[in-house]
Amino acid sequence: MGSKEFILKHSLGVRIFHYILVVSFVPLAFTGIVLYFKPYDELTMNLYMRIHVILGIVLTLDAIAFFLVGFERVVTFIKRMFTFSGDDVRWFTILGGYPQKFLLRKKVPVPPMGKYNSGQKVFGICVVVGGTILIVTGWALWAFPHILPVGMGLLFGNLHMIFGWILSIFLLVHIFLGIYMFDDFKAMFLHGMIPYGKAEETAPKWVKTELVKIENHV
Amino acid sequence: MIVLDKTYQKGEYPGVIAIDPGLCKGCDACRRHCPTGAITGMFGAVHSIDIAECINCGQCLINCPFGAPYETVDPIDMVISKLKDKSIMVVGIIAPAVRVAIGEEFGLPAGKLATKKMYGAMRKAGFEILDNNFAADLTIMEEGTEFIQRARHALFNEESEHGHIGPLPQFTSCCPAWVRFVELYYPVLLPNLSTAKSPQQMAGAVAKTYGAMHVWNKAPVKIFTVGIMPCTAKKFEASRPEFNSAYQYLAKEGKAGASASYPDVDAVLTTRDLSTVLKKMNIDLAHEKETDGGTLLAEYTGAGTIFGNTGGVMEAALRTAHKVLTGEEMKPLEFKKVRGFKGVKAVSVPLMDKKYDKKVTVNVAVVNGLRGNIKPVLDDVVQGRSPYHFIEVMNCPGGCVNGGGQPIQKNGSSWLEAAMPWFAWK
Amino acid sequence: MKKQTYQYAESPFNMSRREFITIGGIVIALLALPAVWIRSGIAKRNSYIRARTKGLYTDDTQSKVRVSHGNTAVSKMYTDFAQHPLSEISEELFHTHHYINRRAA
User: Is this structure's pTM higher than 0.80?
Assistant: First the structure.
């Protein structure tokens, strides 16, 4: 396993899905928060709403397209997100070693992780569950607020707001760590590949049990 | 009362409904229910009600998912203090639609007919009962006679002994949101409105005259009339300055008992307000003893009680018109063709006018849900090409049972038309 | 510039067919359930109006007298007081001529 060897971590389809997710969700979160506080005048609030709606449509199409074209990847992702073990519990007790790394500049041993570490799995669940709820409630509130039973309308409004806030705040953590882990950043945003050594360090269970060697590589 | 807007007379409540900017999300749900487009504010921005265009119907209030619209007129504490004042007789004028909805505020299912428990609870609180269905029957007598007079004048050139006879088609006038709608948007049709007052206003007038003198033996000035209505616009209607007929009538004979005028209806509680009054007085309607209404002013017929449904006024009017014109009771009494939620229901009723020994066909129409349904009907009348002689109009979809003052049903929506998406943009 | 290449990739066989069907089925079911719930909520949205409407028609069929001209209390009120519909008293107390054009200056 030479130091110059690479693993394909994110295929092109996954990366495209993620690009569109980024350009739609980040401004969705921003406009959503502005819409929550409504600090500006009527015309400006309407503009923010229109942008929010358009981006919501983009996000929905992105999600549906990936769901249909990459259903197998979606199922794989969900399997990974919801598989927890004792290693994950131990990971949470030391918070993945991140606070020690940033605040104390100390490197502590971390339980062996799969492709996604425990924190990423929780974030993944939030994205899948929260994202679905945001999309469904968002469409219902845009298209049918006058027809939904009023109790359902209130529930959807509250769910949309709660998950909007949760994902927006969790997103900040995701962006920070996603850039900090720069090899992973390059994998997701550029070529999809991660150095073998780095993967062994951060995702040993994945490397050991899920990879195959490619003879004629692209 | 300060008049803020010139579409309100001095003394009227200007703007019974307002929107709380802290709760409004700008989702546009209210705007789609509003029959007059009185709600301003772009999609995504906080909305507000333009009181110059608002007809006080409350449909925005019962359909907002976030509960942003609220009532600016709250007589609850004032009514409770009057109930506790032993020198004053508080008369509750109970609309038909209240008895099938008040139970919902006390855990009973929607539509449960809770008349006797309602009487029991209200009498325990100190109300005297004047059932608005009594006044509804009275309204049929007055308005039905008026209609026959107009019809016979139009068909047979019959003249009246006194006064001017109005034109056809005749519109019902019991819905105060509808009346203000005509006053704002179709004033040319004001002569077509029936001159009969709504049952609420007839009830107030009869309470302080006939009720005071012949039933309760109480000085009119000591009677405090409270409309108990499924409707927010009734709060506006009761405040119309011309509705002090009892005072004017009594003052002519020196029996008014006061130098200052008093209204026919002193206060109006919505169904929701009544439940708050009862709860504040620790009265649980669901477990109250059933009682009767107390006096003959609570006596009503089946024709009066169906006033709360769209088509109910028309059906009640036809039952009496049939008897007056043909001499016989309508058989069957149910007139199902005017029932149901269709926006505009049109029926032709063939009748034999015994007085003139002539066959007549009365074309009637029933409109419910002003938004989307009324304009073509009115434009036809304005253009002189309406086929109808008598038109019942109720602003609220489904009729008063779905009024802006009714308990808000969590799994309900007033939208009667097909569930089509409507993507807000502006 | 040499194009970046990789020597390892994920095995395409990362779950059994049974696992795939189970998880896939759960995903689809969890998406379908809210859709069904929302559709039924929207379909039943007017049922409370129907219930209240039915309540009043029931009050009608249960009434002893079902025509307004048969209300003896109303008749008594006319006999004792207002005389008859459209009488002078009736006109004064039960009718209005005060509809106004709200836009008139």
Answer: yes
